[in-house]
């Protein structure tokens, strides 16, 4: 059977996590409080894959294709265990255009 996904490779991934502010019982000046880091940054080697995606604009009105244009592409590296369809997916609605028949 043919493989659907590319082979994995090791890449360094960076994750940030917001740190919760802890209540301190000691007096800390405002200047010291401002310098306290608010995010935890972690780097880790993980199995990854590269992905190439295209994105389009589609507009249909009464089963008629009005617009179907390729708008761009996206190349990214992600963890191979992530199960997502891509950065841009789904259906959106137009709320500022009026589509009429001529």
TrEMBL record:
InterPro entries: Glutathione_synthase (IPR005615). One of its GO terms (cellular component) is cytosol. Signal peptide: none annotated. One of its GO terms (molecular function) is glutathione synthase activity. It comes from the Eukaryota. This is Uncharacterized protein. It comes from Plasmodium falciparum UGT5.1. The lineage of its organism: Eukaryota, Sar, Alveolata, Apicomplexa, Aconoidasida.
């Amino acid at each position: 059977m043919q493989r659907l996904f590319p082979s994995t490779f090791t890449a360094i991934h960076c994750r940030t996590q917001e740190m919760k502010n802890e209540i301190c019982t000691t007096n800390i000046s405002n200047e010291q409080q401002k310098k306290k880091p608010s995010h935890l940054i972690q780097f880790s080697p993980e199995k990854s894959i590269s992905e190439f995606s295209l994105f389009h604009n589609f507009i249909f009105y009464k089963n008629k294709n009005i617009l179907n244009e390729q708008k761009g592409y996206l190349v990214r590296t992600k963890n191979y265990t992530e199960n997502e369809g891509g950065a841009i997916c789904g259906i959106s609605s137009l709320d500022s255009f009026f589509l009429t028949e001529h």
